[in-house]
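Page 42, continued from yesterday. The earlier attempt failed because a stray header line got pasted into the input along with the sequence. Redoing it now with the clean sequence only.
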Amino acid sequence: MQTEDLIARLAADARPVDTHRILRTTLIASILGLAAAIMLVVETIGMRRDWATAWGDPRVLAKILFVLAATAASALAFLRLARPGRTLKPLIGLLALPFAGIAALASVELGMAGPQDMPALVFGSSWTFCLAFLPLYAIVPFVALVMVLRASAPTDLTGAGFAAGLFAGSLASIAYAVHCTEDAMAFVAAWYAGAILIVGLAGALLAPRLVRW
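This time it went through. C-alpha cells are written below.
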C-alpha cells in the first residue's frame, strides 16, 4: 500500500472531533470538585453563622465577587490551555485581572484606615488558618481537573497546570468563604489571593509529572 493510500484510508476512518468534550468534562469536574470542597468545609470547620445579615455588608459582596471572578478567569484559561497548541502567555492579563481588582480595593481600604487599624485589616485573626486550609480544600478540585487534562491533549503542561491550580484554588476559595468571617479587602487580597496563587504554582510544578501523554 502506498503512503498516499494509507493517509487517505486513515482520514476516511477518522471520527469527528468532539469540540465540546473538554467543556463538558471540565464542567462536571468543577461542579463535583466544588461540591466536595464545600462539604469538607461544612464538615470540618463549619459555616459562618451570620449569613442572613452578612449579605448587607459590601465587603462580603466584594469578597464573593472576587472569588467568582477568579474562578471565571481561571476556568476560561483552563479551557484554552487544555487544548493543544495553546500557551499561557496570552492569558496572563485575563488571569491577573481579578487579583488586580482586589488589590486595588485593598489599597483603597488601607488608605482610608489609620495606622493602628492596618494590621487587623491585613492579618485579621485567622490568616494562618486561611493560608493553610484553603489549599487543602483545593486538593479534590485539582485532582478532578488533572483528570480532565489527562483526557485532553495540552501541549503547555506547565501553563495548563498553573491554570488548573488557579481554578482549583478559586473553587476552594468559594468553599472556604462559606466559613470565613474575615471580610476586609486587605485580608482577602493577601491571604485568599495568596492561597490561590500557591495552588496555582503547585499545579504548574505537578502537572508536567501528572499529565504526560
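Notes: Residues 19-210 form one domain.
Reminder to self: strip header lines before submitting.
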